[in-house]
Amino acid sequence: MLGINFFKSNKVSAQTAILLRTKNRPLLLKRALKSITEQTDQDFCVVILNSGNKFEVENCIEEIKEKLKNKYLLIHINEGTTKGAALNIGIKYSDSKYIAIHDDDDSWKKEFLKKSIQAIDNKSALVTKTILVKEEINESEIVEKHQETFEDWQIHEISLFRLAESKTFPSIAFFFRRECISLVGEFNGNLNQLEDWEFSLRVFALLDTVFLEEELSYYHQRVSLDGSDYDNSHIKHIDLYRKTEIDIRNKFLSEDLKKEKFGLGQLMNLSSSYGSILKRVVKTEKNIPIVYCVDEKFIQPLCASLYSLLDKYESSNKLNIYIFVKNFSKNDKDHVLSLLPKEKSYEIFWREFPLDKVSFLDTSLHFSLANYFRLILADLIPISVNEILYLDADTIILSNITELFKYFDSNYHIQACIDYCGKIGNPLIKSNEALGKLKISPELPYYNSGVLFMNLKKWREDNSAAEVISFAKNNPDTLFFMDQTPINIIFRNKIGKLPSVWNAQTVHPKVLDGTFNVPYVAQSFKDAKIIHYTTEYKPWSLGKDLPHASFFHKTLEGMNIKI
User: Which residues, including other chains, have CB under 8 Å from residue 183's CB and lie 6 or more apart?
Assistant: First the structure.
């Protein structure tokens, strides 16, 4: 069973033993080893369990050997060894307080080990929130295509009932004490699929566990299949995966029947039946996706906008509200949630925004990086969501938002309301000379980005997020409104017009210098459905001196917030 190893003893020991399984995927293995060696907690050892090409693995290790610091053991196992048996070998040849599983195609954030050890406390096992990464292998390069939170419904805890239905977290997010092996038994050596699910079921059913509400692990999936070793195994061998799942259910159920009492087997089969029914029901419903992007300066207006949205909302369908935040603490999030009506049908999904994707873009005047967040939502929202309604946090919703969804048209990349600047060639949008170089007519209509229907399906098909960000980076001379000018330029022939009442833009008298289309302003407020406090003049800083500020202040009064 055992072949070459590079360690002097038969075991490696440390506070945490990392079991790293690999097979003929050197490109991914290099990333996995980098993920391990960059951990802020360095009290670990690695057992590398290789069932593929020996020399490829040895070469990968050689490149990073100094960073591993003799804290590893390389074991070449027979190709026919199951995944469950491989993990048991890794456990046998290591000595540690904690154990983590790190397959070669996944990765961790640098603080995974440190924060997991801190959070596990006196519990037996821990699971962290996970980021699902969709990627492709192009020759010798890993190309990331999309990110989203894995299993959105897991907000505060892992549900044993849901876990009994199906595998709800990947092994890269699992961290447990070695004593679990003596308490629930080792991994099932007969399983070559779902061995981690079967083991975690026993752990969660019998022992105390904790869920760490921080995205510290990355679960990587290749989106294109070519039949190579780089394919995800559960997708490549889907028939075996499904058969193994049934076999595991039958095994546990058989044990329950022999004991003549309710146990894990009956729970697994009950939850499976419930899940099948629920999936059929969910297909008949249509959740409504709403997105906000805010930083720490907009906590109060976000509360007001959310409250007004929910206060006017009437529908049997649920609102799925994604909130991308910058510098929000847990207390900030809890504060927002405490002010919202509880009787409405909605769910909040918090997202920490990946600032590295926009940190190189220009910020000036009253704009911040948060203004750019909307430009790459197609790469951040779950790929199952094809269209969203984006709302600025400085909006107050005066009508049932479902009325607006009647205007959605899948023929456009974006639908929006005309901005008060009116035309792309308006002096406020800056350089007509730059527009000329881009061969764009200054007479084109100019749209406001505070209320947007975004057809994410089209954005993804055209890789529009990358195009918009590239324009913002390379053409700062055309940017006055940092977020919306790139949208107007890139999608100049792909934008649908929404009725102006759905984005009635307030403007302070100081700004009304003759460059705005005043009749349009008056018309948009006649039957306003959404009030949008544009420019740097806001009702929370100017009080009642701003036109139409009363809508904001009345909303705060409805929330029992004193001004």
Answer: 124, 206, 207
- Confidence at residue 205, expressed as pLDDT on a 0 to 100 scale: 93
CB 125 within 8 A of CB 106: no
Q: What is the mean pLDDT of residues 127-156?
A: 82
DSSP secondary structure of 439-471: T--TTSEEEEEEEEEEEHHHHHHHTHHHHHHHH
Do residues 68 and 46 touch, judged by C-beta distance below 8 A? Answer: yes
Mean pLDDT of the chain, nearest integer: 84
Query: What's residue 4's pLDDT?
Result: 38
How far apart are the C-alpha atoms of 563 and 560, rounded to whole Å?
A: 10
**Tens of pLDDT, residues 172-223:** 999 999 999 999 999 999 999 999 999 999 999 999 999 998 899 999 988 7
The half-sphere exposure of 493 on its side-chain side, counting CA atoms within 13 A, is 2
Q: Up-side HSE of residue 74: CA atoms within 13 Å toward CB? A: 23
Buried b (16+ CB within 10 A) or exposed e, 46-74: bbbbbbbbeebbbebbeeeeeebeebbbb
CA distance 179 to 335: 39
Longest dimension (CA), the chain: 84
Give me the mean pLDDT over the 240-268 stretch.
89
Sign of CA dihedral 517, 520, 521, 522: positive
Mean pLDDT within 480-504: 84
Q: What is the pLDDT of residue 21?
A: 95
Higher pLDDT, 527 or 452: 452
Strands laid side by side in the 495-497 sheet: 346-352, 319-326, 288-295, 387-391, 445-455, 414-423, 495-497
N- to C-terminal Cα separation, the chain? 72
Nearest to 38 by CA among 10, 63, 64, 6: 64
Backbone phi and psi for residue 116, each to the nearest 5 degrees, phi listed first: -65, -40
The answer, yes or no, to whether residue 297 has pLDDT greater than 50, is yes
For residues 5 and 79, the model is more confident at 79
Helix (H, G, I), strand (E, B) or coil at 331: helix
In sequence order, what are the beta bridge partners of 357? Answer: none
Q: Tell me how far apart the alpha carbons of residues 101 and 19 are, in angstroms, rounded to a whole number.
A: 5
CA proximity to 179, closest of 111, 97, 61, 240: 97
Q: How far is CA 508 from CA 39, 128, 154, 294, 544, in A?
A: 51, 47, 44, 22, 11
